[in-house]
């Protein structure tokens, strides 16, 4: 208990340092000190990844000599490069119980001997998008393997390092961006860039202003064959923040939004503040972008703005409605482009906000397909074309059915059974996933009466909830209404949410989960293991169950790395009084391994594929 309280205090201190933009080196020192205090017999280090030459360099550590630090600069990553090099290459935890016996350590063995380092445990430091930032390692003075609580501590440190490193990368990117623009300003080149900055820019955000934005449009209107794609970004809920917290907070929020977009958008994008809470993005000519780039850019903007902003003493959450339009060849199409984008923004807001819409003009085949699916989804929702299949969750030891997961299927009148991978991403992007989720909840809760009667005993109904639906303020009342209408006991319903939901809005998620638990509904974390930075939430959230992602189960009987992670998660989760479910079980060997290591429930093709209700009741 004392160790846990100390960890919590350290994490809070480090998060405050990150929020208040304490120098990067101080934050790294605080994180490595946190681990060193909890593991006093060990040496810790953080190696940062440099994508320009695919190397790692040791930038922070506790108990590391200057000689060792200098030797661990520009270490090329690879599958056979000690522990950290291998971790960076595989992006998996690497445990080396005895450095002397590990061939991958041969080039560095003399350094380890000089430091009296006998073992090494390394975890990757990754962004939520799985981009590599570096590696975090703990060295032991004796040959050994980490205990489960040691791995948990390392993952927490990895999450903090990822947050701090990403913030530092954003700061440097912004600094480089501003320096580049200043050089362009004073070089007086006869290019459009000179026009953008000399006729110099929005004074609040330091972005190009509407005049520069329209100048670029006009220039392309006069060019033969040039074609642009424009994105109009309108912040949802900004007026409420501006009026409720004051214009000073509103201005600081706009500056923070501009900085985040400027640092993360692709180099092809021209970003401007058009006024108020509107930003414009132009993507170059036809030869300069692929069909996927506009959609990828829109998704990037939505993801960037979904992360909370720390503005003074306030933590602010916003989203955006985005309108996309592409100009046709020649002058007329480019000149009316933004009018089309405004039309698309209105449609995005009508769809429930926090989404994008593409103006329905002439489009490429991939865009037409996307729009067609979106239109057909509307018809499917209105025509009740969605059906629910069920996949059993079985007791690991007895294989007795303990629950079922409801999985949506689209029974298209012409296409037949449409795969979820084809329509779910579209539904997520347009907000239609909310209506689909409501259909699944309603149908599954009513079906449970027949399922329970067939089995002769109560079981749990698991329903996956999309992040968009879970964040809705009306979500809790919807759950209440479905339970009352179906007559299903709240104790029989279990809602599955992903780690990403908990990471993006921890405080709000905690309130939502607690309200559901007070109602009697169970909550489980789905796809656990895909986001290391949320491990600390297991202790704080009132959840019932953890579902280990299938990517860790696939080769659990052949990969000692995956086996170590799964074993550690089972042990850690049981210590917290939670149940563990393994997804994607497809072989007898996987079943036997998970059963032997105490996994509670199993789900996968080895036991049953998702089946219609009638087949489940046979």
Short description, anyone?
The chain is an alpha/beta fold and 618 residues long. It is 48% helix and 21% strand. It has 25 helices and 22 strands.
Note down, in words, how this protein is organized.
The chain has 25 helices and 22 strands. It is α/β, with parallel strands linked by helices. It folds into 3 domains: 1-173, GAF domain (Beta-Lactamase, 2-Layer Sandwich); 210-363, Reverse transcriptase/Diguanylate cyclase domain (Alpha-Beta Plaits), CATH 3.30.70; 381-617, EAL domain (TIM Barrel). The strands form 4 sheets. It has an 8-stranded mixed barrel. The chain has a 6-stranded antiparallel sheet with strand order 3-2-1-6-5-4. Strands 8-9-7-12-13 form a 5-stranded mixed sheet, sandwiched between helices. A hairpin with a 2-residue loop joins strand 10 (309-311) and strand 11. Helix 1 packs antiparallel against helix 2, helix 2 (24-38) runs antiparallel to helix 6 and helix 6 packs across helix 7. Mean pLDDT is 84; it is low at 188-198. Keywords: c-di-GMP. Residues 226-361 form the GGDEF domain. Its EC number is 3.1.4.52.
């Amino acid at each position: 208990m004392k160790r846990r309280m100390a960890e919590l205090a350290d994490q809070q201190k480090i998060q405050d340092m990150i929020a208040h933009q304490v120098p990067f080196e101080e934050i790294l020192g605080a994180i490595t000190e946190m681990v060193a205090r909890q593991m006093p017999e060990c040496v810790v280090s953080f190696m940062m990844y440099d994508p320009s030459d695919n190397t790692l360099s040791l930038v922070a550590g506790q108990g590391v000599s200057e000689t060792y630090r200098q030797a661990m600069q520009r270490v090329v990553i690879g599958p056979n490069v000690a522990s950290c090099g291998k971790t960076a290459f595989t992006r998996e935890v690497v445990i080396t119980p005895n450095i002397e016996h590990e061939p991958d350590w041969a080039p560095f063995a003399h350094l380890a001997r000089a430091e009296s380092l006998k073992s090494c445990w390394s975890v990757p430091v990754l962004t939520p998008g799985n981009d590599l930032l570096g590696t975090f390692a703990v060295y032991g003075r004796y040959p050994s393997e980490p205990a489960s609580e040691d791995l948990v501590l390392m993952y927490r440190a990895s999450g903090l390092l990822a947050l701090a490193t990403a913030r530092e990368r954003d700061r440097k990117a912004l600094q480089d961006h501003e320096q580049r623009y200043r050089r362009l300003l004073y070089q007086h080149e006869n290019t459009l860039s000179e026009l953008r900055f000399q006729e110099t820019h929005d004074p609040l955000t330091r972005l190009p202003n509407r005049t520069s934005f329209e100048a670029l449009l006009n220039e392309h209107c006069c060019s033969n064959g040039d074609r642009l794609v424009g994105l109009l970004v309108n912040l949802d809920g900004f007026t409420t923040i501006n009026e409720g917290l004051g214009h000073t907070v509103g201005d600081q929020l706009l500056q923070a939004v501009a900085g985040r977009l400027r640092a993360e958008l692709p180099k092809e994008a021209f970003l401007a503040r058009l006024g108020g809470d509107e930003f414009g993005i132009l993507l170059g000519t036809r030869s300069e972008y692929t069909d996927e780039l506009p959609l990828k850019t829109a998704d990037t903007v939505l993801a960037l703005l979904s992360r909370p902003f720390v503005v003074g003493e306030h933590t602010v959450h916003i989203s955006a409605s985005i309108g996309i339009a592409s100009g046709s060849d020649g002058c007329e199409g480019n000149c009316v482009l933004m009018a089309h984008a405004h039309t698309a923004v209105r449609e995005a807001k009508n769809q429930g906000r926090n989404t994008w819409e593409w103006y329905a003009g002439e489009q490429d085949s991939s865009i037409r397909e996307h729009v067609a699916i979106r239109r057909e989804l509307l018809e499917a929702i209105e025509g009740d074309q969605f059906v629910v299949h069920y996949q059993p969750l079985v007791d690991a030891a007895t294989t007795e059915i303990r629950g079922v997961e409801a999985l949506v299927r689209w029974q298209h009148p012409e296409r037949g059974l449409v795969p979820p991978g084809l329509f779910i991403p579209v539904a997520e992007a347009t907000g239609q996933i909310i209506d689909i989720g409501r259909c699944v909840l309603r149908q599954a809760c009513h079906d449970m009466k027949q399922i329970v009667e067939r089995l002769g005993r109560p079981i749990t109904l698991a329903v996956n909830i999309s992040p968009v639906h879970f964040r809705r303020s009306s979500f809790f009342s919807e759950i209440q209404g479905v339970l009352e209408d179906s007559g299903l006991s709240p104790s029989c319903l279990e809602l599955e949410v992903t780690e990403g939901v908990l990471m993006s809005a921890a405080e709000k998620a905690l309130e939502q989960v607690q309200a559901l638990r007070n109602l009697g509904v169970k909550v489980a974390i789905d796809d656990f293991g895909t986001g290391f930075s949320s491990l600390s939430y297991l202790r704080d959230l009132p959840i019932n169950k953890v579902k280990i992602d299938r990517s860790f189960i696939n080769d659990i009987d052949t990969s000692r790395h995956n086996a170590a992670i799964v074993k550690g998660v089972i042990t850690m989760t049981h210590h917290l009084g939670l149940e563990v479910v393994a997804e994607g079980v497809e072989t007898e060997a996987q079943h036997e391994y998970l059963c032997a290591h105490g996994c509670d429930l199993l789900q996968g093709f080895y036991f049953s594929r998702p089946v219609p209700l009638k087949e489940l009741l046979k």
